[in-house]
């Protein structure tokens, strides 16, 4: 499940691979993760993948010659241009039905959370007015999670795609404002705050605070899948379980972005881009042909990672294990 930060394309050049800190014991298997470019829809010349569905579809952002951002969806590698709402429009997650979670950006510093459902865009609201924020996750139950400014606080809001005007706010501790959120297929939600704390809201809505690997670490949770949470604690990419305990130190000076049903995790450290399996390195993402930089933002339950590479302009790509 993706976030706004995942749309930023890395411009760091290729560097030597950094040996990651991993759980004890040698990994059972090391994959050769080979890249292949994803086709762009007609009429655009650049783009990147931001999220994926359980059945393997990708969603991303595309544009033509640096024009307004629009949304595209890839199914079995074939792209479809969904478009936008007349201004910069981005989407960060897609479910099996093709519902999208995203945002529009009518002007600098302003964002409006939106969803795409039954072939049309809708604005998320609190029932009386639209909100400033971004919808970042949608699951197959139609649950949508967003970070939104309502009143004096930035909330974690939960909607259903059939009811974009009915929101439930999750209870962050007093004084905490939401920064990043993600949701899994069971409705478990992780939320990070601007003060460097992170919380798990289980599907039953019990709340667990994620523990720091080292006391006073800044914590950021980026992805969740039943039983697994990934992100960073301090400067290290880590994985937590649903008790909030750190269960794997993935890599120094890095971050982890997404985790799938098989506990495969994508993340990076500087210009080195890793895939981990059950807390251990399972290879590095190979360079797409002609790439000066590359990064993966998501991984499907079938084990295909996707993101982008730069070859003059950002272009969408996917990575799969070749043995």
Any idea what the CATH architecture is? Answer: 7 Propeller
Largest beta sheet: strand ordering: 1-28-27-26
Poorly predicted spans: 1-26
Integer-rounded radius of gyration: 18 Å
* Arithmetic mean pLDDT: 91
What is the number of helices? 0
Assign the CATH superfamily: YVTN repeat-like/Quinoprotein amine dehydrogenase
Tell me the overall shape: globular
Beta-strand content bin = over 45%
Query: What structural class results from the helix and strand content?
Result: mainly beta
**How many discrete structural domains?**
1
Main sheet attributes: strand count, strand direction, barrel closure: 4 strands, antiparallel
Proportion of helical residues = under 10%
Q: Could you spell the SSE succession in H and E letters?
A: EEEEEEEEEEEEEEEEEEEEEEEEEEEE
**CATH topology annotation:** Methylamine Dehydrogenase, Chain H
CATH class: Mainly Beta
Distance between the termini: 26 Å
Q: How many beta-strand elements?
A: 28
Q: What do these coordinates show?
A:
With 323 residues, the chain is an all-beta fold. It has one domain: Methylamine Dehydrogenase, Chain H (7 Propeller), CATH 2.130.10.10. It is 0% helix and 54% strand. It contains no helices and 28 strands. It has strands at 33-37, 46-52, 58-63, 70-75, 78-83, 88-94, 100-107, 110-117, 120-123, 132-138, 143-150, 153-160, 163-169, 178-183, 189-193, 198-201, 207-209, 219-225, 228-233, 236-240, 246-251, 255-259, 264-269, 272-277, 280-284, 293-299, 305-311, 313-321. It has a four-stranded antiparallel beta sheet, with no helix packed on it. Strands 2-3-4-5 form a four-stranded antiparallel beta sheet, with no helix packed on it. Strands 6-7-8-9 form a four-stranded antiparallel beta sheet, with no helix packed on it. Residues 1-26 have low confidence and may be disordered.
């Amino acid at each position: 499940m993706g976030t706004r930060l995942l749309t930023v394309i890395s411009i760091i050049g290729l560097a030597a691979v950094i040996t990651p800190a991993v759980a004890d014991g040698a990994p059972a298997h090391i994959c050769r993760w080979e890249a292949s470019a994803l086709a762009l829809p007609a009429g655009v010349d650049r783009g990147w993948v931001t999220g994926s569905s359980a059945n393997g579809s990708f969603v991303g952002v595309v544009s033509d010659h640096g024009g307004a951002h629009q949304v595209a969806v890839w199914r079995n590698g074939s792209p479809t241009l969904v478009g936008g709402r007349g201004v910069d429009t981005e989407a960060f997650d897609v479910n099996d039905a093709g519902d999208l979670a995203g945002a529009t950006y009518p002007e600098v510093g302003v964002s409006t959370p939106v969803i795409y459902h039954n072939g049309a865009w809708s604005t998320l609201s609190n029932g009386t007015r639209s909100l400033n924020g971004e919808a970042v996750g949608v699951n197959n139950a139609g649950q949508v999670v967003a970070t939104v400014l309502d009143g004096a606080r930035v909330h974690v809001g939960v909607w259903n795609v059939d009811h974009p005007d009915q929101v439930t706010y999750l209870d962050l501790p007093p004084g905490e404002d939401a920064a990043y959120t993600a949701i899994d297929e069971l409705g478990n939600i992780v939320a990070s705050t601007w003060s460097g704390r992170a919380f798990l809201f289980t599907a039953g809505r019990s709340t667990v605070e994620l523990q720091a690997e080292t006391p006073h670490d800044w914590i950021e949770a980026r992805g969740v899948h039943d039983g697994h949470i990934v992100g960073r604690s301090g400067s290290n990419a880590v994985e937590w379980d649903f008790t909030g305990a750190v269960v794997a130190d993935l890599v120094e000076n890095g971050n982890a972005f997404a985790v799938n049903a098989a506990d495969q995790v994508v993340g990076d450290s500087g210009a080195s881009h890793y895939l981990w399996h059950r807390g251990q390195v399972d290879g590095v993402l190979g360079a797409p042909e002609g790439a000066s930089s590359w990064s993966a933002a998501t991984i499907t339950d079938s084990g295909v990672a996707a993101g982008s590479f730069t070859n003059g302009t950002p272009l969408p790509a996917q990575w799969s294990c070749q043995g």
